[in-house]
Write a structure and sequence with these properties.
Layout: E1 21-24, H1 26-29, H2 35-47, H3 50-53, E2 57-59, H4 86-96, E3 100-106, H5 122-131, E4 136-140, H6 149-162, E5 168-171, E6 189-191, H7 214-221, E7 233-235, H8 247-259, E8 264-266, H9 275-281, H10 284-290, E9 299-304, E10 307-313, E11 319-325, E12 331-335, E13 342-344, E14 349-351, E15 359-362, E16 368-371, E17 376-380, E18 384-391
Parallel strand pairs: 1-2, 1-8, 2-3, 3-4, 4-5, 5-6, 6-7
Antiparallel strand pairs: 9-10, 10-11, 11-18, 12-17, 13-14, 15-16, 15-18
Helix pairs in contact: 2-4, 5-6, 8-9, 8-10
Bound molecules: alpha-D-galactopyranose.
Residues 26, 61-62, 104, 111-113, 140, 172, 195 line the site of alpha-D-galactopyranose.
C-alpha cells in the first residue's frame, strides 16, 4: 500500500467547483475522429444552445495520435490525416468559440486502442499538452500491468501541475483501485466503474465485453456519495443520451446523473441532435441541480418495488427529489411528505416538511405541483422519472 507521502501531488485548485460539463468523442465515434468533426461539433454546441447551457469542454478521446512517438524528440504526434492542421490550431478554433479543449491518454504503455501511452513520458507529455493549450486530460488505465495506480496518477497530476497550465485531470481507471479514497488530491474527477453502454438495464455482450447499463452504474454510485464534493467528483461515465435508448430512459439517465452530481459529458452526435435529445441535455432546471454549489451527491432515501426515491440537498435550502421507476410497469406514487423526514448526516441538512412547507416544481414539465402540505400522488412511467425541486 502506497503511503500518502509516496504519492504526494499537487493540483490546481478551483478548476471544477461544480461537475465538469462538455462533450467527448468516444461513445459515438470511437477512434473515427477528425478536425472537421470537432469543428462541426463545436459549431453545433454553440448553435443548439448547449454551450450556453454550460457544456464547455470538447474532449478528444482515444485515436487522436499517430501510432508512434517522434523518434527524435519522443513527443506524441497528432495523426496528420485526421488533424491536418495539428492540434494547436484545433484548440485555438475551439477556444475561439468560447469553449475549452481536452485530450486523452493513458497511464500505461499503450492506450486502450493501442496508441502510444504516457508511461515514462509523463512530464514530457504534460509539457506537450501545455504547448497545445489543452484544458482537460482524460487519463486511462490500459496496458498498466505492474503499475501502481496511486503512484501513476499522482505522477501525471504532478506533471500537469509543473507544466503550469491549469488542466482538469480526469482519472479513468474504472474504479479498480478505489480512486474515490485517494484521488481528490490528484484530479477533479475519477471514473467509478467500467464503461457505460447505451442500455437502461440490460447487460449485452458487445463483442467480448459487457458495457454497464445505466441502472447498474447508479447502484455502484449509491455508496460513494461521501467522496464527492466541489473540486473532486465521482464520474459514473459519459452520457449515452441520444444514443439509442427510449426518451424516458434518456430522461431518467440524465436526471440521475444530475442528482448524482456527475460530470455531464455528452457522448452523442451533436451535429444530428433531435429536438427531444436537445431538450433533455439543455434542461436548465435539471442542470441547475447538477451544478448546485453545495456539491452534494444525492442520497438514496428509499427503494420499494423498483421505485427509488433519491434526494439531493441544494445550497439555498431547496431540495431535489427524484423518483426513479426501474420496473417495466408504470408505478404509482403516494408520498406523504409529512411522514418523510430526511436527515442527511453527510451535509447536515434536513428536509422536514412539518417545520417548513415547500413549493414543488416538476423539473421536466415545469408545472407547479402544489406544496409539501399535501401528499404527492403521481404515476411514473416505466423506465422514467419524476424529478422535483422543492423550494421554500
Ligand atoms: C476505455 C475507457 C473509455 C474510452 C476507451 C478508449 O475503455 O474507459 O471511456 O476512453 O478506453 O479506448
Amino acid at each position: 500500500m502506497a503511503t500518502s507521502a509516496k504519492t504526494f501531488s499537487q493540483k490546481f485548485e478551483g478548476l471544477a467547483l461544480t461537475p465538469p460539463m462538455g462533450w467527448n468523442s468516444w461513445n459515438t465515434f470511437q477512434t473515427n475522429i477528425s478536425e472537421q468533426l470537432v469543428k462541426d461539433i463545436a459549431d453545433s454546441m454553440v448553435a443548439n444552445g448547449m454551450r450556453d447551457a454550460g457544456y464547455t469542454y470538447i474532449v478528444l478521446d482515444d485515436g487522436w495520435m499517430s501510432m508512434q512517438r517522434d523518434t527524435v524528440t519522443g513527443n506524441l504526434i497528432p495523426d496528420p490525416k485526421k488533424f491536418p492542421h495539428g492540434i494547436k490550431a484545433l484548440a485555438d478554433f475551439v477556444h475561439s468559440k468560447g469553449l475549452k479543449f481536452g485530450l486523452y491518454n493513458c497511464a500505461g504503455t499503450k492506450t486502450c486502442a493501442g496508441y502510444p501511452g504516457t508511461r515514462g513520458y509523463e512530464y514530457q507529455d504534460a509539457r506537450f499538452y501545455a504547448s497545445l493549450d489543452v484544458d482537460y486530460l482524460k487519463f486511462d488505465w490500459c496496458s498498466s500491468d505492474g503499475l501502481n495506480a496511486q503512484e501513476s496518477y499522482a505522477t501525471m497530476s504532478n506533471a500537469l501541475f509543473v507544466a503550469k497550465r491549469p488542466v482538469i485531470f480526469s482519472l479513468c481507471e474504472w474504479g479498480n483501485n478505489k480512486p474515490w479514497e485517494w484521488a481528490a488530491k490528484d484530479g477533479e474527477l475519477w471514473r467509478t466503474t467500467g464503461d457505460i453502454g447505451n442500455y437502461f438495464d440490460t447487460v449485452k455482450d458487445t463483442g467480448g465485453w459487457k458495457p454497464n447499463p445505466v441502472t447498474k452504474i447508479i447502484d455502484l454510485e449509491a455508496d460513494l456519495r461521501k467522496y464527492a464534493g466541489p473540486g473532486h467528483w465521482n464520474d459514473p461515465d459519459m452520457l449515452e443520451v441520444g444514443n439509442g435508448m427510449k426518451e424516458g430512459e434518456d430522461r431518467a439517465h440524465f436526471s440521475m446523473w444530475c442528482m448524482l452530481a456527475a460530470p455531464l459529458i455528452a457522448g452523442n452526435d451533436i451535429r444530428k441532435i433531435s429536438a427531444a435529445t436537445r431538450n433533455i441535455l439543455t434542461n436548465k432546471d435539471a442542470i441547475a441541480i447538477n451544478q448546485d454549489a453545495l456539491g452534494v451527491q444525492a442520497l438514496k432515501y428509499a427503494s420499494k418495488d423498483s421505485l427509488e426515491t433519491w434526494v439531493k440537498p441544494l445550497s439555498n435550502g431547496d431540495w431535489a427529489v427524484c423518483f426513479l421507476n426501474r420496473s417495466a410497469q408504470p408505478q404509482k406514487i403516494n408520498f406523504n411528505w409529512k411522514n418523510e423526514t430526511v436527515n442527511d448526516t453527510l451535509s447536515s441538512k434536513q428536509l422536514n416538511t412539518t417545520a417548513d412547507t415547500y413549493k414543488i416544481t416538476d423539473v421536466w414539465t415545469k408545472k407547479n405541483l402544489s406544496t409539501t402540505a399535501k401528499p404527492l400522488n403521481a404515476v411514473v412511467p416505466s423506465h422514467d422519472v419524476l424529478m422535483l425541486r422543492l423550494s421554500k
